[in-house]
Amino acid sequence: MHRGNIAHFRQDDQTAQSLEAHLFGVAKASFQNANKLGLGLAGELLGLLHDLGKYSSEFQSYIQSGVGLIEQDADDYVESQKYKGKVDHSTAGAQWVWESVSENKAIEKLMTQFLAMCLVSHHSGLIDCISPSGEDIFNRRMSKDDEKTHFNECLKKIPIEIKERINDIISNKSLIANFEQIFKKLILVEKDYQIEIEKNSFQKDIEFESRLRFKIGLLLRFLFSCLIDADRTDTADFEKIHNAEMRQWGRYANWSILSQRLENHLKSLSGNKSPINGYRKHISDACKNASQRKKGIFTLTVPTGGGKTLASLRFALQHALKYENSKQNEIDRIIYVIPYTSIIDQNADVTRKILEPENIPSVAGTIVLEHHSNLTDEKQTWKGKILSENWDAPVIFTTSVQFLEALFGDGTRDARRMHQLANSIIIFDEIQTLPIRCIHLFCNAINFLVDNCNCSVLLCTATQPLLNGVNMAKGALHFSQASEIVEDVSSLFKSLKRVDVIDKTTNNGWSQEDIFSLVRAELEDSGSCLVITNTTKSARSLYQLAKQEIPHTYHLSANMCPIHRMKTLKKIRNRLDVEPQLPVLCISTQVIEAGVDVDFGSVIRFQAGLDSIVQAAGRCNRHGRRDRGQVFVINPNNENLNKLNDIRKGKEITQRVFSEYSANPHLYGGDLLTPETMIQFFKYYFFDRSHEMVYPVGPNSVDGLDRDDSLFNMFSENSLAVAEYQRVNQKSPDIYLRQSFKTASEAFKSIDSSTRGIVVPYSKEGKKLIADFCSGIDLEKSSKLLKIAQRYSVNIYPHVFKELCEKSALHEIQEGTGVYYLKEQFYSLDFGLSIEPVVGLDFICT
Q: Beta-carbon neighbour count of residue 623 at 10 Å?
């Protein structure tokens, strides 16, 4: 028996969600999401139209047969599995808006293409407009046969109240006026930037149109994000009726309250009058003062150990407080973007203790959200969708990978979060780690967020890259020296100098035995030593050698889950701070060198980019307990960097700087750690690799691409695909949006290869977590567990995932969730995840 037109069906209590309720629910949420940029009407219209095709008899037969509402002997019963994913319910709404809005003005045609693109893409991710082969995918979709889209049938069946509201919005002059206002601002900002380029260049800007189209593409993705998040949220909240109660819906603690908690914490630290804490207070006060400036891009360039975590948090809270209760400029959230999960562990923990004090238990888990990894697979089932995050918290700690995937990644899972970037303060910690090939994508995206999405951005590091000095025509960040928060950065670095960098590289390189001899000498001389390698293999090999002779040897790498690293770091800090008379050695990959608060007597750093060496120096004599610490830079003779291009190139440029310094130390002020040295390093580094900054992609890097191209081009003018269209059709495409969005997003990998998180059985808590997941508990509880699981997850590359699956080392936690856990035999207390079963009893975690 039919129960009207339904959108979803809840098996728990055999309840159907009416299609009308779903459309109105999505429309309301999509309106709220899109209204951040004044596009609320467009968001509402998308919500009302996105599932229009579900009114077709074909779709209703499919869904109602699948859930048992149509009996098998009924005339309209179908075998639902045969129809899964084959009934088009996305195109009808797009065809309606594409045909209904006047095309008298170019801006109206562009707006309708925006809306239609969001609608046809809401299950697949943004489709290609023009494919790399030159095919007009968009117009082909808009002209799809009615017998496949059921447009006319659905138009007749849609309830009158929905139809009237859709027509009201389409005829509302504010719909197009709001779009036009945003587009005009995009164009004006880009024209002003073009004038600036022409002032600083002999060559006229030939990339104006590329930058403009790139940012219009980002605006499309923003609107797409508004719809996707609204759709997924409404679906999840129907399927589990208690989900909505768990959401905060932007109802966060006032910035004034959170800011006061931080100020109270800072006052509690004022009793420590050490010189370093004096400088940290100076930096913190400078951040507070700078927070009163108008929104824009800021830089915070301070030496390692300068206290930038709390200083940047102070800037953000005070900056948000400045705009509190301002309807047009109010800040929704603060987002910390951090390259390594090891820093998230530490910084989020510090921030949580301040903003979620133990004496106010009601706020626990409501303010600080950590988002480490993607535990759910992109091809999500409805269960997986419930478990995915949409950054509904006032303070977010996430990774560079997650941030870039929200802007450029494939599919819908990551794109869903993009709208949450609007009205935010985004803090990039250790910005120098940004992948070189992402630079022009990143710079244009940040300029878009600041100029058009009411954002402020803070770039934090001791080694500030020249992101405002790259090719301006292709997109450089819009900031100047006046954007720096701390006055006289050079003097600050001199005042906080605590270490010397010593170049110990040799022509033949260092053997493992030579390295270990240096380790012994440094342990004897300074009592504690940190060795930082470039590869996991090198770290593990040296650790296994050292552990045989030195009892208190520790290991850190990304193969260990966050809670494992935190506990190991706690042991290390206890040895360094509480029992400094006892020797301690740590062998680590780069996970330790950016922001991790440890203080070793000496550091041995395998040669890499100078920025990495400076970060490593921040782990030596960090708190100024010695007159001067020493950082030795060595070049091992057996480290393979063939697959680590960024490290290999950085190493080559560092060697050039070292050679110049050796010949004339005064060239760099007699110090390898000065900001001036860093500027020269990045000039060489960026000049040598400027061609890589547009994210080049080659033939067969993704399906459908059979030539050399770049993602910057494919996300903007898409000139090569358009040229192919023109060659075949002897005319230009009649649509403004011509990007190959889907192909470019599939080719985008913010790191060398996309990773996914798996849950590991570290400690009794980790094992219990996995057992709870596997027990078949309801997904309301699973949503909470998944947040905890971020701390018990390890990110692995696809080939590692495949290899572990082949060895039966990975198992899905619950069928259909896409969340996997690792068998105990493949996780070690010493070095974390292992491709091979761990020998002996080492895997037994306590």
A: 15
Q: Other C-beta atoms within 10 Å of 206: how many? A: 8
Q: Please name the residues in contact with 787: beta carbons below 8 A apart, sequence gap of 6 or more.
A: 365, 369, 370
Confidence label for 843 from pLDDT (cuts 50, 70 and 90): very low
AA letter at 68: G
* 156 C-beta neighbours (distance < 10 Å), count: 9
Q: Say if residues 197 and 472 touch (Cβ distance below 8 Å).
A: yes
* Contact (CB, 8 A) for 230 and 47: yes
Query: What are the two backbone dihedrals, phi and then psi, of residue 502, each rounded to the nearest 5 degrees?
Result: -120, 120
Q: What is the pLDDT of residue 846?
A: 41
**Which tokens is 583 given?**
């020797």
Asked if residue 816 lies in contact with residue 377, where contact means CB atoms within 8 angstroms, the answer is: no
Identify the three-state secondary structure at position 6. strand
Q: Fold for 494-691, please state it.
A: Rossmann fold (3.40.50)
- For the chain, where do the domains classified as CATH 3.40.50.300 start and end? 255-485, 494-691
* Helix H or strand E segment including 517: helix 512-526
pLDDT, the chain, mean: 89
Q: Say which residues have a Cβ less than 8 Å from residue 555's Cβ, sequence separation at least 6.
A: 539, 540, 543, 568, 586, 587, 588, 830, 831
Instruction: Write down the pLDDT at residue 206.
Output: 67
Q: Which of the two residues, 749 and 372, has the higher pLDDT score?
A: 749
Measured CA to CA, the distance from residue 818 to residue 815 in angstroms comes to 7
Write the CA distances from 51 to 9, 141, 220, 393, 632, integer angstroms.
15, 16, 19, 29, 62
pLDDT digits (tens, 9 = 90+) for 507-523: 999 999 999 999 999 99
**Left, alpha or beta for 391 (phi > 0: left; psi -120 to 50: alpha)?**
left
| CA-to-CA dists, residue 554 to 321, 570, 589, 825, 846, angstroms | 43, 11, 12, 21, 17
Do the strands 709-710 and 696-697 form a parallel or antiparallel pair, or are they unpaired?
antiparallel
- Return the SS3 of 534: coil
Q: Flag whether pLDDT at 318 surpasses 80.
A: yes
If you average pLDDT over residues 243-262, what whole number do you get?
86
Contact by Cβ (8 Å): 553, 587: yes
Unique residue bearing structure tokens 């390692």 = 304
Other C-beta atoms closer than 10 Å to the C-beta of 484 total 18
Q: Is the Cβ–Cβ distance between 434 and 442 less than 8 Å? A: yes
**Distance between CA atoms of residues 583 and 616, nearest Å:** 20
Q: Give Cα 257 to chain centroid, integer Å.
A: 28
- Give the model's confidence band at 304: pLDDT under 50 very low, under 70 low, under 90 confident, else very high: confident
What's residue 75's pLDDT? 81
Q: Which two tokens mark 812?
A: 């899905």
Alpha-carbon distance 773 to 608, whole Å? Answer: 41
Interatomic CA distance for residues 333 and 316, integer angstroms: 9
Q: What's the distance, CA 289 to chain centroid?
A: 29
Its CATH architecture, for the domain 255-485, is 3-Layer(aba) Sandwich (3.40)
Which H or E run contains 334?
strand 333-338
